[in-house]
Amino acid sequence: MAATTETVSLPYVQAPETSESLDWADLVTLDLAKFDQPGGKQELAEEFSRSIEEVGFFYLKNHGLSKEDIDTQFAIGKSVLSLTDEEKLPFRAALEAGDYNGWKPAGTRDLIPGVKDNFEIYNIPKFIPEHANRPHPEIVKEYIETIERFSKHIHEQIVKKLLVIFSIALGLDDEEWFLKKHRYEKTSGDHLRYMKYYKRTEEENEKLGGVWLKGHSDMGSLTLLFRQPVAALQVLAKDGTWKWVRPQTDAITVNIADALQFLTNGYLKSSIHRVVAPPKDQAHIDRLGVLYMVRIEDDTELLPIEESPVLRERGLLGQETLSSDGRPVTAGEWVKQRIIKNLANTSTDKGDNEETEVEIFKGVKVKYYD
Ligand SMILES: O=C(O)CCC(=O)C(=O)O
Ligand SMILES: [Fe+2]
C-alpha cells in the first residue's frame, strides 16, 4: 500500500496562536549567545539558579537553530504521523519492554474508563552505532541526514552548554561534571520526538475535565520543546496553581526532569506539568509538537552530587533516594520502568487520570497531580 504522505511539504505553516488571554507562567529566558562571552557562563548560571527557585521551566534563545530548521522538523513530523496506522505498525515501539524508540500509537492508555489517550509519538534515537540499523518509514529515511544534523546540533550546541551551566550553578569545580555523564556515544535514551495530540470533542473534554495528560514529571535529564503555537501545556506553580506555558516563536522551552532532581536531591526540580484541552479558538487543531529528550547515561547511579557545595550548604546531601534493596536507582532502570508503567498499556481499572502515585522501581514512586 502506498504511503498516504510521501512528501514533506515546505514551507510548513504553523497554526495561529490563541487570541484568548490565558494565565501564562512567568518564565526566565536564558540567552545562549552569552555563553562564549567573558563571564557569560557564570552570568547564565546565576540566571538559571534564580529561575529554578520558581519552577523547573525556562526559555532558551539564540540556540542556533533557524525557524526554517525547526519548521522542517514539524513538516517531517507531520508526514510521519499522518501515515496510516498500518504503515506505522512495523515501527511500533516495544513499550512493554521499556523501549520507546519508534512509534507509540494513540490510545495505549486509559485516561478514565472508556476514554483513551489521544497522542501518538515517533521517537528517533541519537545517532550512534547502537541504533544504526533501526528501520524507519521511507519519509524518515529520505530526511535522515537533516534529522541527524538537527539532532546533533541540539546535543552539541545546546545541551552541552546547558550541562556546563548546571555544573557552575551547583558550584562544582569540574565544569564538565554533567558533560561527563551525558557523552553522546554512550548508551542513554536521548531522542528526537514528533508528537501529535488529536483534537477532542467537547463531550470528551468534559468527561476528562479537560485533562489530556495528567500532571507528571519527565523521566530523564531535560525536555526541550520547540515552538508550539497550540496552547495546552501547563506547569504547576509554587503556589499550587496551574499556569499556561506560552508558546515562544524564537525560544525553545526547556524543563528539568527526574534524573537532575535525584542528583540534586530536589534542588533542581523535576517540573510538574500537564497537557490540557487547548482554548476554544484552537480546539479544532490536531496539536503537533517537536521535542528533544535529554537522558543521562544509563549506568549513572542517581545519587546527590557529593562534590557540590551548593547542595551541602542547603543540607541536601546524605538523604539519597534508595530502592527497597538499599541500592541507588540507576538512570537506565528508571527510564525503562517509567516507559513500561507510564507509556505502555494501562494496568489499572481506574485509568491514568485517577492515579496519584505509581511505583516505578522497587519502592521508588512517582506522583501524579490533578
Ligand atoms: O506536548 C507537550 O507540550 C508536553 C508533552 C509532555 O509533557 C510529555 O510528553 O511528557
Ligand atoms: Fe512531560
> Into which percent range does the helicity of residues fall?
25-40%
How does CATH name the architecture?
A: Sandwich
Strand content: 15-25%
Distance N to C terminus: 43 Å
Poorly predicted regions = none
The CATH homologous superfamily name equals B-lactam Antibiotic, Isopenicillin N Synthase, Chain
Distinct ligands, ions and cofactors found in the model:
2-oxoglutaric acid, fe (ii) ion
Computed CA radius of gyration, to the nearest angstrom: 20 Å
Domain Fe2OG dioxygenase: 188-298
Family: Belongs to the iron/ascorbate-dependent oxidoreductase family.
Protein name: Fe2OG dioxygenase domain-containing protein
Pfam family, one: 2OG-FeII_Oxy
Topology overview:
Layout: E1 29-31, H1 40-54, E2 57-61, H2 67-81, H3 85-88, E3 102-104, E4 110-112, E5 115-116, E6 119-125, H4 138-142, H5 144-169, E7 191-197, H6 202-207, E8 211-216, E9 222-225, E10 233-236, E11 242-244, E12 252-256, H7 258-263, E13 273-276, E14 287-294, H8 309-313, H9 331-342, E15 357-361, E16 364-367
Parallel strand pairs: 1-2
Antiparallel strand pairs: 2-12, 3-6, 4-5, 6-7, 7-14, 8-13, 9-12, 9-14, 10-11, 10-13, 15-16
Bound molecules: 2-oxoglutaric acid and fe (ii) ion.
Keywords: Iron, Metal-binding, Oxidoreductase
InterPro entries: DIOX_N, IPNS-like_FE2OG_OXY, IPNS-like_sf, Iron_ascorbate_oxido_reductase, Oxoglu/Fe-dep_dioxygenase_dom
Organism: Cylindrodendrum hubeiense
